[in-house]
Amino acid sequence: xxxxGCSFSDLFPGCELTASTKSYTFQVDEEDASDHILAxxxxxxxxxxxxxxxxxxxxxxxxxxxxxxxxxxNLKLSCQPLxxxxxxxxxxxxxxxxxxGSGPVHLAGWHQIVPREDASFEEDEDxxxxxxxxxxxxxxxxxxxxxQ
Length: 148
Prior knowledge:
This protein is mainly beta. It has one helix at about 130-135, and strands spanning about 1-5, 5, 15, 25, 35-45, 55-60, 65-75, 80-90, 95-100, 105-115. The termini are far apart.
């Protein structure tokens, strides 16, 4: 997937936030029948960064579909130029925004596509009547006596 100079794939995705490109939105086709997971691994300053605070926010939606912005990194060249986010998982659509500083800040991670299972089938549909009869009923376990 390649949008506005940023690419996210299963191998090595990434985008760069700068003074001129302060945000990047990762989204998927709403009609896609798959679930998408975007995991953020690393946020780091790159060549040309000034020794200033660079705050990166993730903008998404909460369970009530309200937009929320959460700072995930505060980078400064002299004390913390890189932050590992240990595959911080997000559900698209999600926007990465440079809330303070001029960057450049590089974001990297991975994008996973998980096909959804068809929820309309019944669990026992694949079993024949004979196979259903062969399944043993569940019986409660018996207490064992302790031998003295």
